[in-house]
Write a structure and sequence with these properties.
Largest sheet of chain B: 4 strands, mixed
CATH architecture of the largest domain in chain B: 3-Layer(aba) Sandwich
Shape of chain B: elongated
Number of strands of chain B: 4
Oligomer: heterodimer
Low-confidence stretches of chain B: 1-10
Radius of gyration of chain A: 25 Å
Strand order of the largest sheet of chain B: 2-1-3-4
CATH class of the largest domain in chain B: Alpha Beta
Shape of chain A: globular
Number of domains of chain B: 2
Helix content of chain A: 40-55%
CATH superfamily of the largest domain in chain B: Glutaredoxin
Largest sheet of chain A: 5 strands, mixed
Distance between the termini of chain B: 33 Å
């Protein structure tokens, strides 16, 4: 490969080579599939193809997350003449099955008819993919395969054909809003940074996906790292930055490894670095590894952490857009937000604005987890109802149990009870029922979950993750947790409920940053919709779901840890 | 607790790891703001951050020991005590929690005689730690045995895996 090849030449060469091959087998390498032996499946297919003398005529590669984590390893095969390729998608592929599949592909040119194709199931067909469009197609460790799928063509278009202000205008017109949770208009943020005065500006990608129960950003970074890097580079061009940082949690070692490799590959092709596309635009990206602090998802804490300090927030204003990293104007966007940018520049803002609802444009990636049949990762247009997401795509609740609530927004969010199943999922609607879009974790609970216990779980999380800088959050989360421990032990009383509501009000209004301000949300939301469960705990000392070990009973073990906040 | 006596993990031991740590700091041009990255490198090399290592990093990056210690203790990922030969990480993220991670954690700790305050067995063979979320929600409950992520295991299966380590 010559570094002077244009993107188009690379794409043409790769696509021509692929069209000539007899077949292609791709194995999902998401964490779910990896944990049940996807690596061995990939090797098995490769070995069989070699054995059959088909190593040159077949393409066997890994891909990013396919979404249906519970049914891995997931394997897709593609075969036939270039103009009429056929495709099949298989779930639960073990080594023996993979071997049989490869053997059939090699000998008869098509997969065995006995294997069931799952590609037509609602889980796959009901989704609309922008961010994850290529995650299941490309080999994330091979930049050429990403380029063949269109990577960096939007960056080329932006830096060679558009002025920075035009790029900002495109993002504004698209209606893209921050996917980290709050939903701030992305175009507005970009134009603030673009207008800010400063000698150096920075672009930061927030990949500190701290919400327990959310793994969208991990899957995007692992499955299509170049999409995020391209988004960062376009953002940098638009706001006038030359240095970027991508902050990823230490819990995601594969994402970090793939990002580092992707940056090196992109630099080698002059897609990052100096004089990108032979223009005057320079952009360098460095990976910074988080170290396990939920509060670092808050933008001012994130900045402190990148600067090498304790990740504690500071009051805003000034906002990072004016004074961020080392006091310079800094654009901070979430992974998924940046992953939308290249598609918007490539297809135009009108195309993007045509998807979703009036105020919430585009798609949203959700991590479906908890008591749901199809756990995994999905991308749906904004405005799809919760019922469609949970029952059509998610396959409903396993074991014949009843749906009780869906929790969104993690420790900063709230729950949505059954009466709102037909609610369209967008920023405004979720806010109206007392929760938030959040980063995309969607945990489904059935009748065997106790909502008081769930509230206790989240407040315990916030108690431990409070950075300790401001008192309402540091002490308030301890107080709320203590009360909930009492209630779940059957030792609470009615006044405790009032105290909870008072404390919630206090934290919301007086905490320094988003962590403390939103920490009471899960408590407030469960009291609002499941007050009868709280009342059963405090009045009758009974846990309707049978989860809490009430005083005098020998019910379920108490998993909560002792008070450890010093 | 910063001034620990020199031990086998002392950076003055002249072992290779010290050279590798110095190389990692050189790559960062001894910039003070690379402290977090350097602490990551040190923990990867030594398995934990001893007082000696923290002092050495502070001197090299020209950062006061108070700040090095403050940063090292702020983040959950850094450990100031050595871990066991094997580590069982139980994910307690929301998805894992609603699928019974609490029971798994309790059973594994009971099996090894560990608790929230005591995370490593006396013979140094095994540690049990809690993760906030490893992002494996699709295969919850998730447990990480050393580096390997396993999903969908019940308490029995996890306990029997860990039992193999202490024999």
């Amino acid at each position: 490969m010559s570094p002077t090849d244009s993107l188009e030449e690379i794409a043409q060469r790769r696509n021509a080579a692929r069209a000539e091959r007899k077949c292609r087998v791709s194995v999902c390498s998401g964490l779910g599939c990896e944990s049940v032996g996807a690596g061995a499946v990939l090797e098995k297919v490769r070995a069989r193809m070699r054995l059959q003398g088909l190593a040159e005529e077949s393409e066997v590669h890994l891909t990013g997350c396919r979404g249906l984590c519970q049914r891995g390893p997931i394997v897709e095969v593609e075969w036939g003449p270039a103009e009429a390729k056929e495709r099949r998608l298989y779930l639960d592929v073990d080594e023996a099955c993979a071997d049989q599949l490869a053997l059939e592909m090699a000998t008869s040119g098509a997969p065995p008819a006995s294997l069931r194709d799952h590609g037509g199931e609602p889980f796959f067909t009901r989704q609309t993919k922008i961010v994850l469009a290529n995650a299941g197609v490309i080999d994330p460790e091979d930049i050429e395969s990403c380029i063949a799928a269109g990577a960096y063509s939007a960056l080329e278009k932006a830096v060679t054909e558009k002025k920075p202000a035009e790029v900002v205008q495109m993002i504004t017109e698209s209606g893209l809003r921050g996917r980290g949770g709050a939903g701030y208009p992305t175009g507005l943020k970009w134009s603030t940074v673009a207008k800010a005065a400063g000698t150096r500006k920075y672009v930061v990608c927030n990949g500190d996906e701290g919400d327990p129960g959310a793994f969208m950003d991990r899957s995007v970074l692992e499955g299509d790292p170049h999409e995020v890097l391209e988004g960062m580079a376009i953002a940098a061009y638009a706001v006038g930055a030359e240095q970027g940082f991508i902050y990823v949690r230490a819990e995601y070692p594969l994402a970090i490894k793939r990002l580092r490799a992707a940056i090196k590959q992109a630099e080698r092709l002059n897609l990052l670095g100096a004089h990108i596309f032979d223009t005057g635009f320079n952009f360098r990206v460095d990976v910074r590894t988080g170290a396990g602090a939920f509060v670092c998802g808050e933008e001012t804490a994130l900045i402190a952490s990148i600067e090498g300090g304790r990740g504690t927030p500071r009051p805003r204003p000034p906002y990072p857009a004016v004074s961020g990293l080392w006091g310079q104007p800094t654009l901070i966007n979430n992974v998924e937000t940046l992953a939308n940018v290249a598609a918007i520049v490539r297809n135009g803002p009108a195309w993007f604005a045509g998807i979703g609802t009036e105020k919430s444009k585009g798609t949203k990636v959700f991590a479906l987890a908890g008591k749901i049949q199809n756990t995994g990762l999905i991308e749906v247009p904004m405005g799809m109802t919760l019922r469609e997401i949970i029952f059509d795509i998610g396959g409903g609740i396993p074991g014949g149990k009843r749906f009780k609530a869906a929790q969104t927004g993690g420790p900063s969010g709230g729950c949505i009870p059954a009466q709102f199943l037909d609610l369209p999922v967008d920023y405004e609607s979720l806010q109206q029922v007392g929760t938030i879009m959040g980063s995309g974790g969607l945990i489904v609970m059935d009748e065997s979950s106790c909502m008081v216990d769930v509230a206790k779980f989240f407040i315990e999380f916030c108690r431990e993750e409070s950075c300790g800088k401001c008192i309402p959050c540091r002490a308030g989360t301890v107080q709320i947790h203590d009360i909930l421990v009492r209630i779940t032990h059957g030792l609470g009383n009615f006044e405790d409920l009032e105290k909870l509501e008072d404390l919630a009000d206090l934290l919301r209004n007086t905490s320094l940053c988003g962590l403390g301000q939103t920490a009471p949300n899960p408590v407030v939301s469960t009291i609002r919709y499941f007050r009868d469960e709280y009342l059963a705990h405090v009045n009758e000392h009974r846990c309707p779901a049978g989860v809490c070990a009430m005083a005098g009973s020998t019910a379920a073990r108490e998993p909560s840890r002792a008070h450890s906040v010093a | 607790m910063i001034a620990e006596p020199a031990s086998a993990t002392s950076p003055k031991g002249g072992d290779k790891r010290l050279k590798m740590l110095d190389a990692a700091m050189r790559r960062q041009q001894f910039q003070a703001d690379a402290l977090l990255e350097v602490l990551h490198s040190a923990q990867e090399l030594y398995g934990f951050l001893s007082g000696e290592v923290l002092l050495h990093i502070g001197r090299s990056l020209k950062v006061p020991p108070s700040r090095v210690y403050g940063v090292a203790t702020f983040y959950n990922h850094f450990s100031l005590k050595p871990k066991g030969e094997h580590t069982c990480t139980v994910c307690m993220g929301t998805a894992c929690y609603v699928k019974g991670a609490g029971e798994i954690l309790g059973r594994v700790r009971d099996e090894l005689g560990l608790s929230e305050r005591k995370s490593t067995t006396d013979d140094g063979k095994a540690s049990v730690v809690v993760a906030r979320c490893v992002g494996a929600c699709g295969i919850a409950p998730a447990v990480v045995f050393d580096q390997e992520v396993a999903g969908g295991l019940g308490p029995e299966a996890v306990v029997s895996r860990v039992r193999g380590w202490i024999r």
